[in-house]
Write a structure and sequence with these properties.
By secondary structure, the chain is of the alpha/beta class. The protein contains 7 helices and 16 strands. The structure holds zinc ion. Zinc ion (ZN) binds next to helix 5.
Length: about 325
């Protein structure tokens, strides 16, 4: 695949200045690597926040990042790396002003997250298949979108004959304030994993689901196969980019976190960063799947020195190009 023209310009500029580009070599690359780079322009000190770079390859992949010098706090000198089937990682990069800095950033192995489905509303064989297909859809979207997560030890349990099942459990209402503990105590709860209760209706609809932004999800009996990845996104602390309605300049119903959709497929790098780095994400708070890795509180959608904007894309998402 041809390199995009901006990369040629970057190196041409460096050659004309008789100084080498700075580079970051991504390690543990599966198929491609992308960077959001922070620092300051070597030439005039202009702050660089989330400069994007991408390149295909595997193993070690070197990316030119321009000519950077260190930026003063609260600006940052770092890169966040993304890639297919890899968890995003952040590295501090102490740029020097002389040019030719060479740094390394190792992408993380895919995070393997266990989960349990409790089939509360039968028939069990049909709803077991329903849950399995929804889970398969989630891991395909995660792989294609570089979420860096994978389901493992995915258990589907038959709870349809549980004597504690009552109408309030089968047809759950209450929004964020539903009685989540009833599911844990009456149906069951496996610790250190997300528990998904497949019931009849949620808020009166068989096609609705809900997350407690923690270890519990409820799913209606006829939910679309792309809803589970959305509810898992809530468990990773992600919010809706806006309410139901028309598209925005940066999001439409093809985004996984769009609230009303049957065509969810894409995640931005801004969303993936938040899912991994927010302390409240179950990736950190429940699974502890990133020991010794930094966190960053990025609940808002805006860009800061530490947080990329929610809509930031290193790769295109359907009709939305890299931005
Ligand atoms: Zn939602």
């Amino acid at each position: 695949m041809a390199r995009p023209p901006w990369r040629a310009h970057t190196c041409l500029a460096a050659l004309l200045a008789l100084a080498a580009c700075d580079t970051v070599t991504a390690r543990n690359v599966s198929l491609d690597a992308g960077l959001l780079v922070d620092g300051a322009e070597s030439s005039d000190g202009t702050i660089v926040n989330d400069r994007g770079r991408t390149r295909e390859g595997s193993g070690e992949v070197e990316l030119n990042v321009g000519r950077l010098a260190s930026a003063a706090a609260p600006n940052r000198n770092e890169a966040v790396g993304f890639g297919q089937n890899r968890a995003p990682r952040r590295a501090d990069l102490p740029w020097t002003s002389g040019g030719g800095d060479r740094f390394f950033l190792s992408l993380g192995d895919q995070l393997r997250l266990p989960a349990t489905v409790w089939i509360v509303q039968g028939p069990f064989p049909a709803q077991r298949d329903h849950a399995f297909i929804a889970a398969l859809n989630a891991v395909v979207i995660w792989s294609r979108e570089r979420m860096g997560t994978m389901l493992t030890d995915f258990q589907i349990k038959d709870a349809t004959a549980d004597p504690d099942i009552d109408n309030a459990l089968l047809n759950s209402t209450g929004g964020d304030n539903r009685n989540w503990n009833d599911f844990s105590t009456k149906i069951g709860f496996d610790a250190k994993r997300i528990n998904i209760y497949w019931i009849n209706t949620v808020e009166g609809s068989t096609t609705t689901g809900w997350s407690d932004f923690g270890a519990r999800i409820v799913m209606g009996k006829d939910t679309g196969d792309e809803l589970l990845v959305h509810e898992l996104g809530h468990a990773f602390s992600l919010q809706h980019p806006q309410g139901c309605g028309g598209s925005t300049a940066q999001f439409d119903p093809t985004n996984v976190m769009w609230p009303c959709s049957d065509s969810r497929a894409f995640l931005t790098e801004g969303q993936i960063f938040r899912g991994h780095f927010n302390p409240a994400s179950t990736i950190n708070s429940l699974y502890g799947a990133r020991p010794d890795q930094p966190t960053a509180g990025c609940q808002g959608a805006g860009q800061t020195a530490e947080c990329p904007a929610l809509e930031r894309r290193l790769w295109a998402d359907g009709g939305y190009p890299a931005n």
